[in-house]
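Structure tokens please, single chain.
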Amino acid sequence: MTYQTIYPYTNEVLATFNNATEQDLEAALAKGHALYKKWRQKDLLTQRKEQLHRVAALLRRDLDKYAEILTKDMGKLFTEAQGEVALCADIADYYADKAETFLQPRPLEAVHGQAYYVKQATGVLIAVEPWNFPFYQIMRVFAPNFMVGNPIILKHASICPQSAQAFEALVNEANVEPGAFKNLFLSYDLVSKAIADPRVAGVCLTGSERGGASIAQEAGANLKKTSMELGGNDAFIILEDADFELLADTITFARLYNAGQVCTSSKRFIVVGQKNYQRFVDLVVEKFKAAKWGDPMNPETTLAPLSSATAKKQVLEQIKLAKDHGATVVYGDEAIDHPGNFVMPTVLTDITKDNPIYNQEIFGPVASIYQVDSEEAAIELANDSSYGLGSTVFSKDLTHAKEVAEKIETGMTFINSGWASHPELPFGGIKNSGYGRELSELGFDTFVNEHLVFVPDAAL
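Here you go.
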């Protein structure tokens, strides 16, 4: 595996890194495990809290520096990268502030005595993370587990090595204790070796279904706990009373943010009733036409290139697959004459259930629009997917929108808005979108030991 930054705007190779060795892995495991043992003996929570707040302060101080690294690694708009770095600072502060509360012993109702449980660290974790949010994906596993006392060894995506390296430098600059976080440019063989090591307590992964299945198989064979976030084909339901002015303010973000390379971005738009269908199609086309591709470092650019030539090729192949099986291209699917990895925003309709694209995630600026005759049919279509990550419901009646939301088989539903990510909101899905949660207290608890302490009546 080659760890290399190829700038998606120009396809110029900016940096190449050597793979980690077995000796590098052993050193990281030894240091991480020793630190885990130290933290179990000496709490040091106050020190970790101070260190994580320093990480947040450094992110805000050097926001533009880190944002440019993200943009050069995977091509996202510089303005979006700035937002990602700011969110990482918020996540760090959130867990530094909340850890003490989250770690409080929890009393249990026990009819045979007195009982409570304490939350304790479990050991070194392997984090296998993707390229679409090069800092955010790391922070949402590092921050909570750092406060719990679980050291992290990172295996980042091969196309964003400078981001991985920069995150480690950030942690070091904040004087975080050595061993708490280590980036390694690991081969898949060394990932397997790390998972099998008895010093490793678990694995967290965000990535593809294939990658998740592979890691889960390795972890299962070694009885290691895992959490998985594996993508989505999120439904966006437009009920008959939807506010079109609010829709107009939402569509671009919901589908074109990060050039559509967001697991929770809306991908299947389901319009209830005929009266709004063409109006909605026209709205999406209008918004897609307004997207301005160009230099992602230019604040006037609104559509970034895709992360790699491979990503561009895959999205174009998926559009062709959809067309070959009867889908209609209402807008887009035209070549952009530029050496970067640009894909023209594209709107597809007339996708039938026998079209292979019906149950595929298109990780790029493509909107699939469906029309159904009833709310029940919209819910059925939304749930007719092997994925179950996020979803959206638009309706002026909030009470009814919530009722519809609860009928959708996903881990998250957003009302009258596109997807969102905040430190206090749990993130994760069901079905082939994975299992486990990140962020919020649920994410904090993913790799903790809920240790029961029980005193029976006879001993009182």
